Structure formats: C-alpha cells, structure tokens
Amino acid sequence: VIYLDNAATTYPKPFETLIEHDECMRRYAGNAGRGGHSMSIRASEKIYETRELLGDVFNISSPDTIAFTLNATMSINMGLKGVLSDGDNVIITSMEHNSVYRPLVELAKKGVTTTVVDTDSLGFVSPGDIENKITEQTKLICVTHASNVTGAVNNITEIGGLARRKNVLFMVDAAQSAGSVDIDVERDNIDILAFPGHKGLLGLQGTGGIYVKEGINIKTIIEGGTGSQSESPYQPLYMPDRIESGTVNLPGIASLYGGLTYILKRGVKSIADHEKNLAAILYEKLSYNNKVKILSPPPDKNGAGIVAVRLDNMDSAKVAHLLDKNYKIAVRAGFHCSFLAAKTLKILDGGCVRFSVGPFNMINDITKAAEAISDISHY
Ligand code: ALA
User: Fold this and answer.
1) Which of 137, 332, 345, 366 sits 20 to 30 Å CA-CA off 223?
2) Whose CA is nearest to atom 6 of ligand 1?
3) Residue 227 Cα to ligand 1 middle (Å)
4) What are the pLDDT digits (tens) for 336-378?
C-alpha cells in the first residue's frame, strides 16, 4: 500500500516507536504512580521522561505542565471546557475541526458565545481579523495551527502575540502540526496546546496530550484517582494530576517516547522540509491537469504536507475508492470531520480527496499518486 493518509494517523511508525512499545509490554507494564515496586517506578520514570521529550519538542521548561490524554479531541475538550464559563466569549476560525466546534455548540447551552472569524479560501486566518473581533467578554482565542483539510498553516506567533497584548488566553489545536511544524510555546505565547500522539509525534493511537501554562487554573472535566493525595476527597490542584485521572496508556506513552526520540534525532525542521517538498511535487504534478481543482495552498504557502483536490467528473468517495482498489493508494475522502472547513471551502456537496504525506513517504509514492489521479480524471 502507498500510504498517503498521514493526516489521519501516521504510518508506518519508526523502529524506535515499535521497540519502546515492545520493551514496555515485555518488561515493565505496571501501573505508573500506583505502587512502590520496581515495575511501577520504571513506568513512572518512562512517563516523566516522555513529558521531558515533549518539552524538548515544544520548548516547555516544566514537564509537569503536560498531561497525557487519549487524543487531541480529548485535549481540546479539556482546554475549552477548562477555561470557558457562562458569559465568556471564544474566538475561533472558520477552518476549525469538529473537535473544536462541537464542544462549543455544547458550551453555548451553558452561556458561552463563539465568534467564528472567516479565513480566506485556502484556510488562512488574518490575525488582524481576529483582533477586530475581540470584545470585553473574549476569554480565549482558539485556532487550528495547520488545517487538516487544506494544510494551510496559520501564523500562531503573530496570533499569540496579539492575544498576549489584549490579555486573552491563547489555545492552539496542533492536531495536524505537532512534530511536523515548528511550535515553541514561549515564542508563540501559547497558554494551552492540544496535540495528538499518533500523528506527527509518531506514537501509537490512543495517545495525546495537553500543555497548560503555569498559573492557569484549569477546571477539570474528569476527576478520580491520581495516585497522589489519595487520603483526600479532593482532586489535587497541581499539574499534571489535576487533569490526569485514572490509569494512563503507558504502552502508548512508551511508544510516544520512541517516536519523540526519532523526531528529535531527525529534527522537526528536516521532517517539515521533507513533507513540504513532497507536497510541492504533488501539487505541481496535479496542477497541469485541468480536470483537477486543488484546494490546498500553493507550495510556497503550504506547510503541512497536505494536498486536497476535487475532480470534475467524480465524487470524492469514489475517487478514494478507486485509488484504494485499483492503485493500492490510501487517502481520505469526504469532509474530514470538519463541518466548518467544508462550508468555508464550499465543498459540502461531496467533500474532497486529501493526500497527506508523512516522514517516510518517498518521491515514488508521489509520482504514482499523480499518475493514478491522471488516469482517474479521464475515466
Ligand atoms: N482528524 C483526522 C483527520 O483529519 C482524523 O483525518
């Protein structure tokens, strides 16, 4: 299979990911923080070391400000519901994923208002447009870093800077960028960072995390056992225990440790350059075909290794099916779990076909994908 669905989850994973998972399951898969024996202690150490590596990737100096979750969706829910209350306003973009928009539809029932700032037709938001929408009630700006549909990468450094000037919290949905686009929580003034472990960070599915800047008093959406202050009925106030209840996915976190060691060795910039380069080649090859409409930004503006297209003659689901069946090429079609993005891109009538490259794709994969689309466009 030629795997070009890395925006859904990266595949394959590097050797480091597999070996760390295997080592954990064979040797020390006890329950971290829940016992004094050597396996439990080793499990706790691995979890802490993984927080440290995440800190290295995102320039987070205090590893305890990072809590593990199951995925980016869970992290986003924790961030939004953790800081927004009745009467608060949140500003988002018109390219947000349902993992941002659906929780906000729920929060509307509790008196939270949402302002949606329109992006341009490629998915880029203008920081000035966000600034113009800030009101006295605005508590939070929440933006997707890289669109999971078009690959447009927003300027979070500028948006973070304006959030700081206006004294508004800044949350970043890094589902599509963590590990493959540079993120620095200090430079970008990020207060809350939600990220998956199984995409660009190369861990297994069922891993994710949330960074909450020191000093932000986040409300909990889940309470329970933390392995700490167990004699008390109250949830601990300190991170990560405050928002990390219940047994964590230790084997998954160990795999994430492996993925992070790979990323730190190869370098986020080198991975970003590789993915951008492949996406640029695919963009160029597809742009010669007048039956193909490309929705993604051109190579000089595209940062997330995604090329989304529509074909004149065929529904996106059919194109994806033919790619799979006749060419063994894996892509994702449809609406990519983003009602807002589909509306913004005006593709609610059938969605689009998304090619998304990863660290291990080669030029040959791109050539084959372009040839297959050329065939299919003439069916
Ligand atoms: N959000 C993921 C995607 O874009 C699953 O495919």
Assistant:
1) 137
2) 8
3) 33
4) 999 999 999 999 999 999 999 999 999 999 999 999 999 999 8
